[in-house]
């Protein structure tokens, strides 16, 4: 069981799609990020004529939350208009979500609000985490690197 309203979070992620700026892909994505204290930040994809600068909905929500001082999260819901596939975060977003822990929930949904739920660490197994850098720094201090 979950300690938050899964359907409400998924619904918010679908509502966030309405703000997607996606004139190039025409693929609107929405995200709703639930912080540990219960605040919800939404995000949408924000594309750019310089394609590599496009920002995903998940990272938009994450940046909004972190820039407001949040670093602990319970869940993020992700929404697209795909009816045959759950909305899975891209690799870059998986890495950015993992930065804030491997044990919080990612809710990948469809427009009918059905969803698949995995932990951030399950979405990016063997990911590069802050712990890896700390281990490296410890090695430098001990003269091992
Ligand atoms: Zn992404």
UniProtKB/TrEMBL annotation:
- Required cofactor names: Zn(2+)
Q: Which residues bind Zn(2+)?
A: 56, 90, 93
Q: Kindly list the positions annotated as binding substrate.
A: 45-51
Q: Where is the active site?
A: 58 (proton donor)
Q: What is its EC number?
A: 3.5.4.5
Q: Which reaction does it catalyse?
A: 2'-deoxycytidine + H2O + H(+) = 2'-deoxyuridine + NH4(+); cytidine + H2O + H(+) = uridine + NH4(+)
| CDD domains for this protein | cytidine_deaminase (cd01283)
PROSITE patterns in the record, alphabetically? CYT_DCMP_DEAMINASES_1 (PS00903), CYT_DCMP_DEAMINASES_2 (PS51747)
SUPFAM superfamilies (UniProt xref): Cytidine deaminase-like
Going by the entry's taxonomy, the superkingdom of the source organism is recorded as Eukaryota
What keywords are annotated for this sequence in UniProt?
Answer: Hydrolase, Metal-binding, Zinc
Pfam families registered for this protein in UniProt: dCMP_cyt_deam_1
Q: Name one GO molecular function term.
A: zinc ion binding
Residue ranges of the CMP/dCMP-type deaminase domain? Answer: 4-131
Task: Establish whether keyword Hydrolase is in the entry.
Answer: yes
Q: Which InterPro entries match?
A: APOBEC/CMP_deaminase_Zn-bd, CMP_dCMP_dom, Cyt/Deoxycyt_deaminase, Cyt_deam_tetra, Cytidine_deaminase-like
Q: Does the keyword Cytoplasm apply?
A: no
Its cellular-component GO annotations read:
cytosol
A Gene Ontology annotation in the biological process aspect, one of them, is: nucleobase-containing small molecule metabolic process
What does this gene product do?
Answer: This enzyme scavenges exogenous and endogenous cytidine and 2'-deoxycytidine for UMP synthesis.
Similarity comment: family membership:
Belongs to the cytidine and deoxycytidylate deaminase family.
User: How is this protein named in the record?
Assistant: Cytidine deaminase
Question: What organism, scientifically named, is this protein from?
Answer: Elysia crispata
């Amino acid at each position: 069981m979950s300690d938050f309203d899964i359907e409400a979070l998924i619904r918010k992620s679908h509502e966030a799609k309405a703000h997607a700026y996606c004139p190039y892909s025409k693929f609107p994505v929405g995200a709703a990020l639930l912080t540990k204290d219960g605040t919800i930040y939404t995000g949408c994809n924000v594309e750019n004529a310089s394609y590599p600068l496009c920002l995903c909905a998940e990272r938009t929500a994450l940046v909004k939350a972190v820039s407001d001082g949040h670093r602990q999260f319970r869940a993020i819901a992700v929404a697209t208009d795909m009816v045959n596939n759950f909305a899975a975060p891209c690799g870059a977003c998986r890495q950015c979500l993992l930065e804030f822990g491997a044990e919080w929930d990612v809710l990948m949904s469809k427009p009918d609000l059905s969803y698949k739920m995995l932990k951030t660490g399950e979405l990016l197994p063997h990911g590069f985490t802050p712990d890896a850098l700390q281990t490296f720094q410890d090695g430098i201090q001990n003269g091992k690197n």
